[in-house]
From TrEMBL:
GO terms for molecular function: ABC-type transporter activity. Coiled coil: none annotated. It is a multi-pass membrane protein. The lineage of its organism: Bacteria, Pseudomonadati, Chlorobiota, Chlorobiia, Chlorobiales. One of its GO terms (cellular component) is plasma membrane. The chain crosses the membrane at residues 21-40, 171-195. This is ABC transporter permease. Residues 23-198 form the ABC-2 type transporter transmembrane domain.
Length: 198
């Protein structure tokens, strides 16, 4: 035990005297944690969204305003026809296009159902699914706000509750595992430095 304590003391003295080793041991993990912790993200924001409104009524305008006031979507322009969708995606000007069918408000009032299509860039399937989910959430929130409470059927509604990371920030998801990886890397590096020094 005494030899082990003496060995630890000797290594500690080496680290204190050698500034480069101290920088590797203390500076590198902090720098990597800051860089990777905020560079690796999986949440989606500032989605460039285009609108193809073939109805031009108050409901589609309200849905469009609701979409862009959510803070996730950025207005990227209006499209005149479905032929403009593919070139907009190919040029990278839009990540999503929301299409409202003709007579949207009339169909919604008469039949209770109206077609709204969300087209996303599928080059990154994960981002595409997230963007589609965000769009659906905005539409459902709008319809829930506009619905008459007395006309809604009573039923069971599943409400998910996030016990950990309720804001769904990827920083809280990646940093704990990142800390373990950095510690493993630093431990291996310090071991190789100690062996080389001896």
């Amino acid at each position: 035990m005494k030899r082990f304590i003496a060995f630890i003391r000797k290594e500690f003295y080496h680290i204190v005297r050698d500034r480069r080793t101290a920088a590797i041991l203390f500076g590198m993990p902090i720098l990597q944690l800051l860089l990777f912790g905020y560079a690796i993200r999986n949440e989606v924001s500032e989605v460039k969204t285009g609108i193809l409104d073939m109805s031009h009524d108050t409901v589609t305008e309200a849905l469009t305003d609701k979409l862009f006031s959510s803070g996730t979507f950025i207005f990227a322009g209006t499209l005149q026809s479905e032929k403009d969708i593919a070139p907009a995606f190919a040029a990278g000007r839009m990540n999503e296009v929301v299409v409202f069918e003709p007579d949207f408000a009339g169909r919604l009032q008469k039949d209770g159902v109206a077609q709204m299509q969300a087209l996303t860039d599928g080059s990154d399937p994960n981002v595409s699914r997230i963007v589609t989910g965000y769009t659906q959430a905005v539409v459902h929130n709008y319809l829930a706000e506009q619905a008459d409470g007395s006309a809604r059927q009573v039923g069971v509604e599943a409400v998910p509750l996030m016990m950990f990371n309720p804001s769904l920030k990827s920083v809280y998801l990646f940093v704990p595992g990142l800390m373990a990886m950095i510690l493993m890397l630093v431990s291996t590096l310090m071991t190789s430095i100690s062996i080389t020094r001896e």
